[in-house]
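TASK: fixed-backbone design
INPUT:
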């Protein structure tokens, strides 16, 4: 079972299995690292990969001076590869069995903005410029809905229902569809963009259906979003890193702080497992406890 050919076939399977484009890219990158490692060990057949080989690779990755989550992202694609090979009966034994990527209970969520920081960031776009009207609409939508950046990229004009204040996510993770509510404030900025800016941007590319466009009429990319977030973060004087996923974490955290049921947040974010959503309960637990004390009906016994 040739290493290069088999891993190449597995990469093709990732798309068929509903993996997001970004996930496919980093899986491919880290599987390439694993392929090179096997080459250095003169292993050209995946049937020759033993528990010892995997154990040595795991030790190598764990010794690298990078964050634990970064180490886990290098191990995860390798585990998924061998799980796939066993599931498709190409291998009888999974050599990665028992290898731990990272413990979810010890995993810390990334950067979360405070309410004041998110307000400050939202105030940075100059609404006299079309591009910055669009940027404000994008930020408001991300904060209001907590959608993933690849879901944002996939949004099309007909996925928006301003009257019902809703977004229809047709290309969610794992090809799952869901409807997410948009807050009134976010809906108002999105409507402003749709009426005043998008028609102007789409004039040279009228057949383009993507919701968010660049000034040249092309679909707005994740890199475009990361670029203007960095610009507004610096302008606002915020020291924390701000990415599209920061908005997703911040949305979830602020809802938790307001006492919103975690199962609603799970549905909003499109998490398959409640355990994934529960990572956010580690953020500012004191605030959550205070909210609970204020809002929970403490019955006398």
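OUTPUT:
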């Amino acid at each position: 079972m040739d290493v290069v050919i088999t891993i190449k076939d597995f990469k093709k399977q990732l798309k068929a299995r509903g993996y997001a484009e970004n996930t496919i890219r980093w899986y491919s990158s880290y599987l390439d690292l694993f392929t090179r490692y096997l080459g250095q060990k003169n292993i050209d057949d995946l049937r020759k990969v033993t528990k010892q080989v995997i154990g040595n690779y795991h030790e190598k990755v764990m010794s690298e001076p990078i964050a634990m989550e970064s180490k886990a992202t290098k191990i995860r694609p390798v585990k998924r590869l061998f799980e796939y090979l066993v599931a498709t009966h190409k291998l009888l034994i999974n050599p990665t069995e028992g290898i731990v990527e990272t413990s979810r209970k010890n995993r810390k969520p990334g950067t979360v903005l405070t309410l004041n920081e998110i307000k400050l960031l939202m105030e940075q776009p100059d609404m006299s410029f079309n591009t910055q009207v669009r940027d404000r609409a994008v930020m408001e939508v991300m904060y209001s809905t907590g959608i993933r950046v690849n879901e944002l990229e996939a949004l099309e004009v007909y996925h928006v229902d301003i009257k019902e204040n809703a977004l229809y996510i047709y290309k969610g993770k794992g090809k799952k569809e869901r409807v997410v509510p948009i807050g009134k404030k976010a809906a108002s900025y999105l409507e402003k963009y749709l009426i005043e800016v998008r028609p102007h941007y789409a004039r040279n590319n009228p057949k383009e259906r993507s919701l968010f466009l660049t000034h040249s009429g092309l679909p707005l990319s994740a890199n475009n979003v990361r670029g203007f977030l960095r610009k507004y973060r610096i302008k606002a004087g915020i020291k924390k890193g701000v990415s599209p996923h920061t908005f997703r974490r911040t949305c979830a955290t602020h809802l938790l702080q307001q006492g919103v049921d975690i199962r609603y947040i799970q549905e909003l974010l499109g998490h398959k497992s409640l355990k994934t959503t529960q990572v956010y309960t580690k953020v500012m637990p004191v605030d959550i406890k205070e909210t609970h004390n204020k809002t929970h009906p403490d019955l006398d016994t």
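COMMENT: The longest strand covers residues 166-169.
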